[in-house]
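Weekly puzzle thread! Below is a chain. First person to post its structure in token form gets bragging rights.
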Amino acid sequence: MFQQAIRRSGCAISRRWYSSSNKSSAGIAALEVYFPQKYVEQKELEAFDKVGDGKYTKGLGQTRMAFVDTDREDTASMCMTVFHNLLEKYQIDPKEISRLEVGTETPIDKSKSIKSYLMSVVPSAHTDLEGIDNIHACYGGTAAIFNAMYYLEHQRQINPNETKYAVVVCGDISNYKEAAARPSGGAGVVAMLLSSKDAALRVNLATKASHFEHVYDFFKPDPASPFPVVDGHYSNLCYLRSLDKCYQRFKKQSGKNLQDYDYSMFHSPYNKLVQKSLARLVYNDALDAKGVPSYINSSNVDASKLEQLLSVSQENSYSDKEIEKTFGALSTDVYNSKVEQTHLLSKELGNCYTASLYIGLASLVNNQGSNLNDKDLLMFSYGSGLAASMYEINAKENEGRFSLQNMQKVLNLQNRLQQRTKASVDEYASTVDSNVKRYLENNRQSTTGVDHLQKGTYYLKDIDQMWRRKYERK
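Winning reply:
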């Protein structure tokens, strides 16, 4: 009875926070990204791996892949870089921040959090800064945002006239042992300033829907190795099944469907899976409509064939190639209008794990800026193991440093991507092998040059005999 009372009380509080008379304007007020300065061309990887033209570029939908040399950079250094850059570019006083959350699945220590490394970026006297790491595959960044939002909403109830700020930093280095899986790797991090009110990207959790299971689709059981164990086919199945569950629950909660959103974003291990995800939402809407959804041009649809496809059981639908092909074709225009603008970074960087969904958001803001005003965004987050959630963001243009226009200016992604250094496939393969050897090394000085690093980048100087890491900023 006590637990039931707690649950009822929690729901009532959540509804009150987001009621029409007290609608929250809390959300993301500023965005910054950081990605390594070296990349490899996916087309050249195809030739190197002798897999045939288009295997990675068309088959995965990827263009380039970022990678790091762990002699100089790791997850902690990248998070420090993006956090410090966020503060500087938006002129944020660290003392204004009262919560700092991290999402990652590639921590550098089994006990010491990456958040603790970020404390070296803020003034030493500013120690009343709550928050810690959120670790669960690719879902950790979303968990960090939810935690920060719950905190800000609570603060808004206590101090309605005072604006509170939190920061979420999320990102990873994605590597794979098997050469065949390496093209789905990548690296990148995101930092977001969240405000308790008047944010340009307002996070609405009133209608969010989630799905959690215990599965072994992707996991990292070997503490001596940075590589995951992956059941690729099963992982894709878990992803799409979780998408179905979240979308069906979300539609019941919100009364909306895909048509009601201007843009849709998905966790993106590789772009082809995102295309399948968008098609899956159209398929779900077709099931509800018992035919072609009203937002799809149905002039070329065979009604009898569609009826047959919609009669397939949900379990069998995941392996039905005709369903995948038909709804992939039906959703092409919707993908181009609602999703394509979110994939600048994911195609250029590869899989950034916990940052994946949010580099999609950064890509959209970079591409649209103030044009996002009054637009509604649908967000889907997935982490293997598994954890998944769907929620919405409502964009409202502001003035000044926390405006959509200024976010676009600060991100400046096209120019920054062009400033990167292209690496040969041989250099990439050699770097991956060296990274594995260094994974458990201590008592060493870093010797790789730092000329390729941008100004403001944190880099590893040395690791002492007790595995204590020392960083410097360029």
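Puzzle host: Confirmed. Bonus trivia for everyone else. Residues 21-473 form a domain with the Peroxisomal Thiolase; Chain A, domain 1 fold (CATH 3.40.47.10).
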